[in-house]
Amino acid sequence: MGNYIRFDWMIKRLLRNKSNHVVLEGFLSVLINRQIKIAQILESEGNQDDDQQKFNRVDLLVEDDKKEKFLIEVQNDHEIDFFHRMAFGAAKIIADYMAIGEPYKSLPKVYSVNIVYFSLGQGKGYAYHGTTVFKNMFNEDDELRLTPAQRSKFGVDEVRGIFPEYYILRVNKFDDEIRQPLQEWISFLKTGEIPDAFTAQGLKEAREILRVDSLSEEDRKVYKRYLQGVSLALSLDDSSRYEGYCDGHLDGLAEGRAEGRAEGVKQSSIDTAKRMKAKGYDAATISDLTQLPIDEIERL
Fold first, then answer.
1. Residue 74: which pLDDT band, with cuts at 50, 70 and 90?
2. Three-class HEC string of the chain
3. What percent of the chain has pLDDT over 70?
4. Tally of structural domains, the chain
5. 137 pLDDT more than 50
6. Are residues 287 and 263 in the same domain?
């Protein structure tokens, strides 16, 4: 079962405890490259205005002492439209936490942090950061910037400071070369181990807080079942075909097949959910692993 608890399980349970925020603060501080102090855990399920509105369930949503929002998602199973999910999630947080009648300068700053264990998109790296910049269409060296008055009024130095920022950690692509603190964190996300030589902020506390043997007997049983569910989901998921598609190895695929593949991923999740349900897994665990809504799982 390993010495330390998987990150995707810990953020759903242990890291919601205020006394354990030091671990999450360490991770976010290393990732964002500035000190983050968590003020509170926010409601992590977006409100629906009607039954037809997309329901947004996130793993964790926190607010720091500057009122900035950090949306943290951990995804084990392949999702061909995960980029769209990222965009929707950030936009939904902005909409949910922008009060009616407030001036636009009150727009909340959102950081979308996505930890994925599958090949998302094409790229050689494992850590990506996305921001919004405006380039002169006739002069690439010219970038639209804020005026001194805007910088003073908005409290940010650059245009990108207003818009959501996205971080993607493609954990399985990590090359195991460690030269800086963020790579220590990514190594932990990949292997579940924290060597004594690791000194990145938050990992020292993680060694104590996130030990499997520190769990209560009841939590240890729940965690063990969660690991079994992860293993089952991975064994049933035919993700290798989709990873090849995302990495560009299947050149020449017709564009129209993308929709069919998305439907295939959906059906794979349904099949996985049915088998897990038959083996006695609870709906919440099945939902965590398949990303299917709990009400849909209960109807299977």
1. confident
2. CCCECCHHHHCCCHHHCHHHHHHHHHHHHHHHCCCCCEEEECCCECCCCCCCCCCCECCEEEEECCCCEEEEEEECCCCCCHHHHHHHHHHHHHHHCCCCCCCHHHCCCEEEEEEECCCCCCCCCCEEEECCCCEECCEEEEECCCCHHHHHHHCCCCHHHCCCEEEEEEHHHCCCCCCCHHHHHHHHHHHCCCCCCCCCCCHHHHHHHCEHHHCCHHHHHHHHHHHHHHHHHHHHCCHHHHHHHHCCCCCCCCCCHHHHHHHHHHHHHHHHHHHHHHCCCCHHHHHHHHCCCHHHHHHC
3. 81
4. 2
5. yes
6. yes
